[in-house]
Amino acid sequence: MFRQGIVLALGLLLAGCSSMGPQPAAPAYPETRRVDQVDEYFGVEVPDPYRWMEALDTPDLDAWIAAQNAHSAAFLQSLPGFERTRARLDELWRTERLTTPRVHGGKYFFEYNDGTATLSRLMVAAGADAEWQVVLDPATLSEDGTTLLARWSVNREATHMAWAATVGGSDWTIWRVRDLATGEDLPEVLEGTKFTGAAWRHDGSGFYYARYPKNDAGEWDDQQQAEIWFHAIGTPQSEDTHVFAVTDHPTRSPFAIMSSDGRHLVLSIYENSRTNGIYLLPLEEEDAEVVRLVDSWDGRASYLGTIGDTVYLATNIGAPRGRVVAVDLNDLAHWHDVVPESALPMEGVSLVGDQLIVHYLEDAKSRVDLFALDGSNRRTLGLPGIGRVAGFVGSPMSTETFFSFQSFTNPGSVLRFQVEDAAVMPFYQKSTALETDTLVTRQVFYPSKDGTRVPMFIVHREGVELDGMNPTMLYGYGGFSVSMLPGWDLRLLGWLDMGGVLAIANLRGGGEYGADWHAAGTRERKQNVFDDFIAAAEWLIAERWTSPEKLAVYGRSNGGLLVGAVMLQRPDLFIAAGPAVGVLDMLRYHTPSANARAWMGDYGLSEIESDFRAQLEYSPVHNVRPGTCFPATIIHTGKFDDRVVPWHSYKFAAALQHAQGCDRPILLRTETRAGHASGGAKPRHLLIDEFAELYAFFAWAMGVGRPSEQ
User: Rounded to whole angstroms, what are the CA distances from 77 to 19, 68, 692?
Assistant: First the structure.
């Protein structure tokens, strides 16, 4: 069809297929208990018949999960082409992975996987042409590959590295310190952490980190606010020094960064995805007061670096599309624009050497401009094509940095940037088993329900006909200012290998057009995100890329919420749906932890009446209407997901199974060895299992299958 020899096509109909494909025998759903739980919000009574599922790790729930997994496994493994799909994904996942190197002590540190290993290894090279050496291999941390390297931080002289492991997909991390000369870990073990980095002192004596307090039972408690501690290397955690805690606000947590000159501990105070603060703690003065550099709580700011008494920040405060400002430490009230706001939103900014490197977005595509420290001498950095960039980690003392470029057809070029002459040199080109020569990327724009112009990428192989018959997967996210840029993601691109069409919509709630675009998809405006996604599906159908019988919708986490909402609001548009690790009970999403409560900037809180009434209109768990014919649905979650707790998925699956008005299956797949994350934070074999199930299920629902090799 598109290649000779191996035919990579889902597009050939299996003989005798109905619109739902050959029907495996679907046993009756496992019995699910319902309870008479009713909550009242502002005079509105809201039933919650599956409240019992919120008590995780009970025998009743474990038995129910096992029954659901057995039911789903029997169904999925009987699908035509399942084993061939899994075998092909195993080949595709042999794509190389290499993170953008970070420079410490003149050495390059990065993670690498040749495409065959379960997990990526942390490597070091003494120079651009030097041999790579292994610093840490996560495969040695557990037999089943579920203990992962979550974070790592090397000190300035590259003598020691703090590294954090996570087990079974949990967000909880355990930190250790490795002597890089010997490769041995020091005795100390640091617990009680999530999401924190390690901010090394410039003298290498130790690092600052965020950890949670313990509760009355002696357990680390993420219902409370994190606090900043200092750990001196070679000492037990019990001797760590308390440094800072937020005492004037109940939902703000600090995270530590070392200033580029070592004079200050930079405290990024996180409240939600739309606002934060930046405080400075002087380290050269004993008992010094914290300097509240950014404390307005009307936007976001990030620390770039310090030169003399001037601090450089990137911020959207007073500039929804972003600007770079300089602040004199002797005159904090006056911010000087260095790179003013422009028509293009800033996706990221780095200060490297004497260069400000600004990553702009042009209609959801990367552009990089260079500026002198006073904002002059603007130049555009040449990129290999239309795609996305990442990296440029450095400081005012750096002479070089690295960045990556990737696209839907390029698995990733890693490039070295030399500050002195702005020269760009190749460092590494990743290889892939996916045939990319015949891939085509188009960007289109379509009107949403209210007329808003929304971009969308469509990726397909050459020769696709607009006859409404193309098996199509529509993907989106639409939240937390996350931009969906053209990048390499085999979780999605594997669909193309089998002849499918991939569409990625750049919805409101993301960061593609700055803070205003993000805000337009939050709280009482969250419905705009769903309207944008529904409009994308309608456009694909109207333009005859596909039809409702050939269109599946997929998303993860906040994208799982997106899929859950649109499949209920417009079940007629989709033949299949895949809400993965989704936020699906909007009235109670904030109850498990303080981390979840911090999502209120996007979702609001059901404790606030205006937020509650908006949430109730779209919350997937609360909008399942009995007797509706919902799309065939596969719901993936992880038993150890402590970011979006799995009872969201449990409740939604139970509600759909109870209410389904036709014979389209509703499947729940709970991975009992993993948590929320995917990509590099999930073992290769578990990723392959998950996406083989997803693709085979979607293909079956569309009535198409993968032919054998010819």
Answer: 20, 14, 10
Q: Which residues belong to the active site?
A: 557, 676
Beta bridge partners of 276: 270
Q: How far apart are CA 628 and CA 572, in angstroms?
A: 10
Evaluate if residue 95 carries a pLDDT over 50.
Answer: yes
DSSP letters spanning 624-676 = --TT--PPEEEEEEETT-SSS-THHHHHHHHHHHHH--SS--EEEEEETT--S
Query: What dihedral angle (degrees, nearest 10) is formed by the CA atoms of 342, 346, 350, 352?
Result: -40
Percent over 90 (pLDDT), the chain: 84
Token pair belonging to 283 = 């380290």
Q: Which two tokens stand for residue 285?
A: 């003065």
Q: How far apart are CA 605 and CA 584, in angstroms?
A: 14
Q: How far apart are CA 165 and CA 601, in angstroms?
A: 29
How are beta strands 172-179 and 147-154 bridged, if at all? unpaired
Q: How many residues are present in the chain? A: 710
pLDDT band at 598 (very low <50, low <70, confident <90, very high): confident
What residues contact residue 535 under an 8 Å CB cut-off, 6+ apart? 446, 447, 448, 449, 454
More confident site: 9 or 354: 354
User: Is pLDDT at 9 greater than 80 in this prediction?
Assistant: no
Query: Mean per-residue pLDDT for 289-296?
Result: 96
**Measured distance CA(343)–CA(354) in Å, rounded:** 25
Provide the token pair at 72: 């789903």
Is the CB of residue 283 less than 8 Å from the CB of residue 294?
A: no
> Other CB atoms closer than 10 Å to residue 584's CB: what's the count?
27
For the segment 126-139, what is each residue's pLDDT rounded down to a tens digit? 998 999 999 999 99
Rounded Cα–Cα distance for residues 481 and 576 (Å):
27
Tokens of 367: 């552009």
- Rounded alpha-carbon distances, angstroms, from residue 158 to 102, 107, 109, 304, 541: 11, 8, 10, 22, 55
In the sheet with 241-244, reading across from the earlier edge strand, the strands are 199-200, 206-211, 227-232, 241-244
Distance (Å, rounded) from C-alpha 283 to C-alpha 257? Answer: 12
Q: How confident is the model at residue 600 (pLDDT cuts 50, 70, 90)?
A: very high
Instruction: Give the C-alpha separation, 430 to 524, whole Å.
Output: 43
pLDDT-wise least confident of 25-39, 347-361, 446-460, 657-671: 25-39
* Amino acid 527: pLDDT: 98
- Residue 465: both structure tokens together: 């006909």
